[in-house]
Write a structure and sequence with these properties.
With about 260 residues, the protein is α/β, with parallel strands linked by helices. The chain is about 40% helix and about 15% strand. α5 links the parallel β5 and β6. It is globular and about 55 Å long.
């Protein structure tokens, strides 16, 4: 798949890894539809970037919202080729607090709804439109890139909800790729490590240093552009399918 001329649906595209992907894809000649909350910076970002970027406000947990948002993007640009699901929330709470209070069920449910169910919601409507594309190289009609986390493999203390949501994304990668293979749609997942996103920017310096120390090489945080360049590689290499790629400088998370 060529980046230039493609149409991408990027959930969570108003900030963080999603915004980095929007900017890189646009620079390489793609047109992009941003799906993010109405309260996000999505409208301002689309206005800043110009006519090849459209904002379609939606809550990824809502079936109706997402159906309308993806349809709007497809109608605006005439097709959907790529879907990058970067919408997500990071939560932390122990299953049992020191005073014996159990983990909030509402928090666990919200984390899974946004990170896992939200990603599935956006991808199901994205592939609905991709399936109408004329097949390209190797008979390809589209690509889905979901965003997991290395916490989906080695979650830390307090990450039961977050790790469950990201582990679910890892677990559904292959079966969805198998489901969509007959129509020529590939599915890949990126499991980022410690990335320099707005969420990480708010972390205390001592925590940032401790997490950075988990990297083997290079000794720096990952960037949104690192992430976006991997998305572009997935687009250009049609042999990649049904796999999860860690983007983590060889790091492994310690228990805490």
């Amino acid at each position: 798949m060529h980046v230039a001329g493609s149409v991408a649906v990027v959930s969570g595209g108003a900030s963080g890894l999603g915004q980095g992907t929007v900017r890189r894809l646009l620079a390489d000649g793609a047109r992009i539809g941003i799906i993010d909350l109405p309260s996000s910076q999505g409208a301002a970002l689309a206005e800043e970037l110009g006519g090849d970027v459209v904002f379609a406000p939606a809550d990824v947990r809502s079936g109706a919202d997402v159906e309308q948002a993806v349809a709007h993007i497809a109608e605006t640009f005439g097709r959907v080729d790529v879907n990058v699901n970067a919408a997500g929330i990071a939560t932390a709470q122990r299953v049992l607090a020191r005073d014996g209070t159990p983990h909030s069920l509402d928090l666990f449910q919200a984390t899974v709804e946004v990170n896992l169910i939200g990603a599935f919601n956006v991808l199901r409507w994205s592939v609905h439109h991709m399936a109408n594309n004329e097949p390209g190289t190797d008979g390809e009609r589209g690509l889905v890139v979901n965003v997991a986390s290395i916490a989906g493999y080695e979650g830390q203390v307090g990450q039961a909800a977050y790790s469950a949501s990201k582990g679910g994304i890892i677990g559904m990668t292959l079966p969805i790729a198998r489901d969509l293979a007959p129509v020529g749609i590939r599915v890949m997942t990126i499991a980022p490590g410690i990335m320099d996103t707005p969420m990480m920017a708010g972390a205390p310096p001592e925590l940032r240093e401790r997490l950075l120390a988990t990297h083997l090489f290079p000794n720096r945080f990952g960037t949104a552009d690192d992430f976006a360049r991997l998305v572009i590689h997935f687009m250009e290499n049609t042999l990649l399918n049904g796999e999860v790629v860690r983007l983590d400088a060889g790091g492994r998370l310690p228990p805490k």
